[in-house]
Amino acid sequence: MSEKKTWHVRYPESIAAEVTIPVKSMPEMLQEVTAMYPQNIALSFYGQKMNYAELQKAVYGFAASLQKNGVQRGDRVAIMLPNCPHYVIAYYGILAAGAIVTQVNPMLVEREIEHIMNDSGAETLVVFDALYPRVKGVQGRTKVRNIVIVSLQPTEADFSPDKPFEGFLQEGNGQYTPVNIEPQQDIAVLQYTGGTTGRSKGAMLTHSNVLANVVQSYEFFKERTEIGGEKFLTVIPLFHVFGMTACMNFAIYTANESILLPRFDLEEVLNTIKNEQPSVFPGVPTMYVAITNHPRAEEFGIDSIETCNSGSAPMPVELLRDFERKTGAKILEGYGLSEASPVTHCNPPFSERKPGSVGIGFPSTDYKIVDLATGTEEVPNGELGEVIIKGPQIMKGYWKMPEETEVTLRDEVWNQ
User: Where would I find the AMP-dependent synthetase/ligase domain in this sequence (predicted)?
Assistant: First the structure.
């Protein structure tokens, strides 16, 4: 993909149009960051802090417990949690064990949970205690045999024979056995997406896919991202691919702090901004609307925010300008999809933006707009068509759906 693209003229000399993706797994990435910045704060949750050394220890502990319970390379382990430290520990612990993170939206009803469990074949599930009854309602119709329960408040509930997170974390006695992971082939995440056809399907994101999107993100935003000097307000859900990459993985790659909030509660968000002073706030337009419309928003120190990455829906131009006026931040609208880990486009932080657009292509990302009739012929500028995208962040395919994969991954388009 060395050919110079039209949007590359927007890139300054300091930003590479093409990036090299290291051949390493996501746990190796965390391990390297921890080795360099062990005392940097990795996670913050309602005032409690965890540094990278502590996070790494917990990740290996969780991986060891998974191994003790029979989880092997390639097995699927599901996470059904709100944003919390347990999510990050479970996510990286699953990957360290060589298993595949299966993302489950906590808002799903029993029928949808059952579908994902059966489609993925997950036998282990990490779940929030409030959702436990919903999971137990479908367990008998799935292969799930191990349930690990996360409680964010003290509880006297008895989940036997299932296991509380803290107890499970000790079962492996920290005796983690390293796993040989092939980053370009091994699946890291099954990201279920409704798409446009039928029941949700699992986009297979390899370790290299997920890492690629983080490396691309850093290259694109590096002039506004200080290694070890940023705080990410992480309130968009980590079970969503946007939160997974733009908050959790990007923050870890840059040795920065994630301030985790389990939901978007306006007063809680504003108080967190006041107390923690985050500098990076990936979000969606409804979040920015709520903050902008709060009559006393400026009293909460929202001017600490410097960069906002907005996705999932168009950002009204007037809202963008009003939010930026109140905070001094820059909102950068982008575009992505589950199948692309997810980011493919963004308004540039280093040159002129076009509010209301998805921006320009990420480093090492190519795209065309083709006609709907053939799916291969490029349309002239200004005409409607279908966006097709090529890059190292593009999924391996759909889980157990070779026909859907063949239709979606169109190599012939790029061979013309």
Answer: 31-399
Which residues sit opposite 191 in a β-bridge?
203
Token pair listed for 60? 């290996």
Do 149 and 298 fall within a single domain? no
Bridge partner residues of 386 (DSSP): 370
> By residue range, what is the domain housing residue 162?
51-180
Strand partners, 368: 388
Query: Final residue of a domain: which of 180, 195, 225?
Result: 180
Bond before 161 cis per omega within 30 degrees: yes
Q: Residues 216, 171: one domain?
A: no
On whether the CB atoms of residues 362 and 346 are closer than 8 A, the answer is: yes
* CATH at 160: 3.40.50.980
One-letter amino acid for residue 42 of the chain: A
Report H helices in 278-372.
285-293, 317-327
CB count, 10 Å around CB of 209? 26
pLDDT at residue 196 tops 60: no
First to last CA, the chain: 14
Whether residues 17 and 62 share a domain: the answer is: no
Considering the domain architecture, whether residues 169 and 216 belong to the same structural domain is answered as no
- Dihedral (C-alpha) 246, 249, 254, 256: value to the nearest 10 degrees? 90
The pLDDT value given to residue 194: 78
Tell me, yes or no, whether 324 and 371 share the same domain.
yes
- pLDDT tens column, 347-383: 999 988 888 889 999 999 999 999 988 888 899 988 9
- Average pLDDT of the segment spanning 115-142: 98
pLDDT at 5 over 90: no
- Give the pLDDT confidence score for residue 58 in this predicted structure: 99
Q: What is the pLDDT of residues 136-170, one digit of tens each?
A: 999 999 999 999 999 999 888 889 999 999 999 99
